[in-house]
Amino acid sequence: MSEKVESGVSRRTVTKAMAWAVPVMAVASTVPLAAASYVPVTLTGIACKEPGNPKYYRFQVKITNDNLAAVTVTFVSLTINGLTLSTVDPGSTTVPSFTERLITVRDGTYPDSANGTATLTYSIDGVQYTTSTSFNDLPPTNGVGAGCLLRTFPFQQDTPT
Do you know which PROSITE patterns this protein is assigned to (predicted)? Predict the structure, then answer.
């Protein structure tokens, strides 16, 4: 009996490859969607101070979620000139998928409103990150000619990405 030899890939090889491909796809689909890519969170440099004693600061934060799923950003602390005092308000925000959110965070009871540096510590999926900005001559949040772009609190604005 003679055997016919064909060049190329046999059906058996294709079937084996398909059998291995299906479990790999199933495992890959269990990875959380929010972990698929980085979610940038930045202090935009826009900030104000609330007049009076003790002092409160307001900072604008930009969060860009280009993921397929919503992501929750938890604001852990705001450190002003090396001093961390109270909790950030709001404590967290959930940003829908494919959305850029501008949100105002507030933290306070600082002894003065000196110029300096602000560092925001936040977490996403239990992992902590920081973002910083420097600030000078912050305008007050009220009064004639205050010039503060962050007068309302709380504030948030969403824009599709």
Answer: TAT (PS51318)
